[in-house]
Amino acid sequence: MKKSLKKLLSVCMILVLAFAMTACGDDDKQVAKDVGDAPAAEAPAADVTKNEEPAQDDSAEAEKEDAAAASESLKLVGGESILEGTETVEEETNDDGSYFIHSEGEGGMLAVYQQGGLSLPGDDVSEEEYALNLATGLPKRGANDDARVKPANEYSENISYPVYVASFTSGGNEDTAQWWVFVTFTDSKAYLYGICTPIDAEDDAGKLSDEVFPNLRLE
Q1: CA 152, CA 160: separation in Å to the nearest integer?
Q2: Do residues 64 and 188 lie in contact, with contact meaning Cβ atoms separated by under 8 Å?
């Protein structure tokens, strides 16, 4: 009887163990199934950076702007020798590079006018005519009818820009003054250097212009 009971208990334990192992297997399969059925995780969106278009090559435009700026800051120099002993009567310098300087010697025997940074002539006016208009605009009382202007090729070669020389008189009788004016045009601006003396001065404007005008240059 005891042996039969032990045998029965042994069989029951074997059955319980078998059932337990089967249940564990089913759970593993269910877990695996659940894992398989789960939706796949979405991959993080790629950080796409839009390539910026290369800036346009505006070096040519920059060079033009630099040239224009340089031209606006130029000044006609080289006539300092006759300015010794003179006094500046009027001087004006503007932000755009334009300037006007009026100097006079003692006793009114010499007047020197330096002007620059002026606009170029329009399409309907020749450089020669425009140069004469600028030159004859220097005397406050106006120029006489003897005004004339001509190209000065020898000065143009020195300065690398077209140059015109205007000559005329202003006033009358004992107040007659003689004028010689150097006018040049760069690519963007106009510049003047004018000399004025009494008509009967020993060192008249014509003689002084021969000494000064060959030395004028833009800086």
Answers
A1: 12
A2: no
Could you read off the pLDDT of 113-131 as tens digits, one per residue? 999 999 999 999 999 999 9
Say if residues 209 and 194 touch (Cβ distance below 8 Å).
Answer: no
Polymer length of the chain = 219
Integer Cα distance of 35 and 66 in angstroms = 71
Task: Express each pLDDT in 140-187 by its tens digit.
Answer: 989 999 999 999 999 999 999 999 999 999 999 999 999 999 999 999
Determine if the pTM surpasses 0.85: no
Structure tokens at 45: 């969106």
Burial of 145 (0-12, 13-18, 19+ CB in 10 A): exposed
In 3-state terms, what secondary structure has residue 23?
Answer: helix
177 within 8 A of 199, measured Cβ to Cβ: yes
Find residue 116's DSSP bridge partners: 99, 191
Q: From the centroid of its chain, how far is CA 60? A: 11
